[in-house]
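Please predict the structure of the following assembly.
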Amino acid sequence: MTRFIRPLFMLAVVLLVVFAISGCGFRDIDKRFFVIAMGIDPAPEGQKGYSITLRLAIPSPKIEPGAAKTQVETINATTIAEAIRLLKSHVDKELDFGHCKLYLFGERLIQTDYNDSLEWVSRRRDVQNIAYVAIGRPDAKTIMNVEPQGERFPGNTIFLLFGNDGTQSSYIINEQLFDFLRRVGEKGMDPILPIMRKEDNGYVVTRLGLLDKRKLVAELNPQETEMYNQIRDRYAKSTITANIKGDTLVISIDRITSHYKIRKEGNGYVLKLRMNIGGIFEEAPRGVYDQDWHKLEQAFNDQVAAEAKRLLEKVQRAGVDPFGFGLRYRATHAGNSQTWKEWESIYPTLKFDVKVNVDIEGSGLVH
Amino acid sequence: MLNRIGTLFAESRDLMMNRLQNDTLIIEIAFIATLCDESKVSDFILTPFTKQEHPFDELVTTNPVFKRLEDPAKWADTLLDGFVLLQVNGVVYKLDAARIIRNENPQTMVETVITGPQIALSEDLIDSINIIRSRYPNPDLAVEERTVGTMSKTRVCILFDKRRVDASVLTMVREKLDRISSPMIMASGELSRSLGDRYRLFPSMMVTERPDRVCTGIYGGKIVLLLQGSMFALILPATFFDFMNAVDDHYDSFWMTRCLLALRYLAVILTISLPALYVAIVSYNPELFRVQLTFSIAGSRSGVPYPSFIEVIIMLFMIESLIEASVRLPKYIGSTATTVGGLILGQAAQQAGLVSSIMIIVTSVVAISNFVIPVNNMSGAIRFLKYPLLIPAIFFGVSGVTVGLLCYLVYLADLRSFGKPYFRIFSKTPSQSGDIGQVSSE
């Protein structure tokens, strides 16, 4: 019998180890309610706390356009955790946030203070860090109640809108939870959130909200959003426009690079931004082929540089740093507690020197 | 002599005992008629004895087919091996006249290949050795013979290349063969169990019917055991990776066989872990899937009344029964079983809401990838492995499956096949060519 004692002992050890790493409760996939989006609004006037709206997916074995069904639940409570717990008594299955792809802050909440509501999102274990975060206009509940017509499965529109699988728009800047939390906590970089609003029975995302560490402070219009996207992400699937002698010329970008340096010049600091853009005409008057492209390029250079400079100055005036200039400064200067203080005094007076080099590669037509 | 034999075999009607007489000589012969080829008896004994072209007592001493048998204690065994006992002038001789009924013209049935040799080993030892020797024409090929089984006394041949074989493995095999105490050994699998595979999850020697595999094995320094009455040879020591090799891999184009090899390993991983992963992901970590898949699984599972592991067990039970049935059923009904089981049962089980449609896919993937493994006894071992893995999956989810797989890996790495590491990746036994006489005799 002794030959069995050693394996038995080993088995006992393995079982002990295995029990120590046991997973969470056994609950089958059909006993779970998948939350696909969660909206956080402040409670109605005169009450404390939050109004939480969840969009729950009703799974169906059929996947075809328009077959998606969802259930929307709203509840008010003093804390988010309490709201979720209360909500569980409204539904018949366990709530699972594992597939929750969108956390939407209501505009009214983000205009006052969003820090408290972040606590729940950043601590809850089944909240995935790759979830998208956005601002809901006028409030999150309205957006949650939108049921787009052609959804193949619940929430598909949201996944396609923000992910790279579906539409690729230069006006949509997706912000994921991990990046948002990083920006909230990092010195020298401020959070941004796309603004999602309802139009007819669908969503529109064209604007970007600029936040400081506590609340929403400014908003970029679609053109500025596109510019932001071009400077920060070198987003190539976009366009630049210029007005030349009354004509509007549009170049569709093939390649774009941008880099910047922060230099001390004289008494103050200057941020030198250089952009190289190459592309072909998407809209231009007839006969553009025969014109002198150097002049056209020069016009583009000036107008795009002015636009970029306007954006940078607007951001600077708002007192936020969505590009992370401060982080670059901290990273490239000797690190001590003084560095950050220096940057705080430099940024409001920072000068911008933007140079754009547009290279027109073709007229877009076959001659 | 005849009196003694008569008392040894009390009630055997097929025992033939005769005392013959010609002009000069009286001989006694005894044999078991059912074991012997009577034409041989008449060719070698009766005809020369009665025709008296030579003096028969001289013939017996000159013709090498007659061997002297000194020990009367061996008479019974010799008779039972199909020999004829012959007493001339008080001296006992034996003559091999065994008639062995065996499969004619054996074709490979278990391990089929497309372009390789189609002939399989024979159920008769002599034929098998003939097949192997003709494919391995080298004087270094050593053949040793022993018997195993206290009652059955089955003949076992040990074949190896005496220059290439690993001496320590050889002595270990000899010792183990001597220590076998089971009364009956009928098949190679039985022998491999008696040699130490009894409580193992993985087979430590390869059972094969292919002479080309045997020859490659011998050339690679391995030892081959052949058993009288079984057309399967045992090749040892074996490594895990040997079992994943089909003989085709030596014949077909290089890149294709490498891809097939990769495919096989993938299939092994799938067949072991897929049922457990299904339980773990569906019940613990549904966020691992893409959203689309999650919703479609959740939708198709919504009608299933049982938890996922019951579902898995139902389906695996069905598929195992199906495989078992199609192996056991006669060939003519076999295809009916698969049709009924595969088509009707799978469809109906899903439509009745007993299992989800994803589970049907999981089950078929598990079954199909199990059949990809080229050596049958390994395929059986792998087939079993998925069941223990279900238990940690039920209790601990994906982390449980991971730990379970780790346990298998640790166990594999710990295994030894006749003293050689079982999980060794570079599986060639180091060649000892040129080292003449290192293994000369027992």
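The interface with chain B takes residues 14, 17-18, 21-24, 26-30, 32, 34, 36, 57, 59-63, 96, 98-99, 101, 126, 128, 153-156, 159 of chain A (CB under 8 Å). Chain A has eleven helices and 14 strands.
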